[in-house]
Fold this protein.
Amino acid sequence: MDASYIEKYNILQTFQSNDHQKVFIGTVKDRDHEIVIINILRDLGDLWKKDKEKLENALGNLLHLEIVEEGFVLVTTFKDAQPLEDYFNQTHVGIHKRMNILFAYLRDIVKYKELDYSLQSMLIDEAQILIDNHQPFLSELILIDKNLEMDTPFEGLVKKIAGVMKKILIAGSSLEDENKDMLQFIHKLENGEHTYKDIEDIYHAFRSYYLYQWAMGEQSTGSRKSLALREESSFRKKAQPRMGKSMLGKMALLVVALGLGTYGLSKYGLLEGRQENVLVEPVAYFERIETSTGWEFVNKSTGNNLKESIWEVLKNEEIIESTKAKDLMIASPEAGIYKVSLKVKGEKGQWSQPYEEEIILGNNVNDEYSEAEDLSDPLEEVERLDKLHLEYDTSQGISLDHDIYKTGNYGIRIEGSIDSPRKISFKNLSLNDQSFFSMWIMADAAEPIEIRLKGLQKNRIVFEKNIQHQPSGAYLWELLNIEDGIGSIDRLEMSLSAPSVLWLDDIEVDSFK
């Protein structure tokens, strides 16, 4: 960020200008198609200067940051998207999708936890949430309203988060879609009936509930049982000092979402004269409804005069159905890992990006099996990790996770790293030439994972294997299985490189009987 913003960006239009702020619409020089927002904040004392480094780390769409004579300059990316409220008004959003949006919202605001509460309050506002291709993200646009006043303690921040959660959960929904556990959780946040110390505490409490109750496809709505949203003491952090009114000069900071992009900028008159031939791109989307006879997939795609739909269903990586019907029905699905994808064609012949969902089904679609039941009776669980002699360095961010695991009582959590691969050794093995290695792996983002395996016998390398694994989505358990070339070994060394957080469970290193 050495060059000044003047040297890197063209200013096209002024969106807002007052005594405290100037906001411009601009483009990257030499790349006129890349629109940016140039935000110059003035007369805000030490607030921005002392949080400069924290803002650099926290803002996910930040392109440029500098302090100049005219103020504090933030240049952020611009993305075509739809405001949350408009999305709910124009689209039927079922409870599954609402829970996914809730999870994404709480996960994404954790990155703001080191900022002052007033900055956090701006960035966690409902108006920050935009929807692109049915996926939520945060706009991170800061607009200042001099007519309001804000002095935000932590409890005020929690109440604001609770309000956003309630909006996501019930806005425009029918009564049967309401989730009593979640509404009770929100009610406690609103009324201060909790001991959370920061927004990461709230996220972790919700995450455990979400992964057990909603992320696993084999749990039908009827079979879910209540799993309390717990307050985990292991996530306690020291509360940040409260920020006084003097810091803000008795001036409130109000976030207003523009819903940037062809949709949002046109709504606010920022693209006047540039919209005559706007082409509405088709967007594929479907909702899954569990019935007594199987799964119904309802096509909810959007676009002008959609001409064609193509569905594809894979079971355990093999295509079992491909159809051009508007909707899809899978009757009496059997156990397996299903991947359902849909793409649609618009009136001009342009195809959408495919929308995909992965569903992991247990022994029977009507089973009363659930993770919550397993947790309630740990004596019936088989903890496969207990059978292994594991060796790892906790300073590398490797630990046992008693909150997130596939089966048993715990899994292995690994902090992401590209430059420093995380290493785990399996010792005291006794494998013959007909052996296998398998494990379930999950990541918090769909980023590539590099896995290296090295088998040894009496410190002599017997085999080496490199695996490039591409997760099909965030927070999905996927099985990796290797049966070829392992050989007779007494130790297996595994290293993992990935930018995302990983979880491992149900690891088996054994010989065929």
About this structure: The mean pLDDT is 76. The two ends are 60 Å apart (CA to CA). The chain has twelve helices and 25 strands.
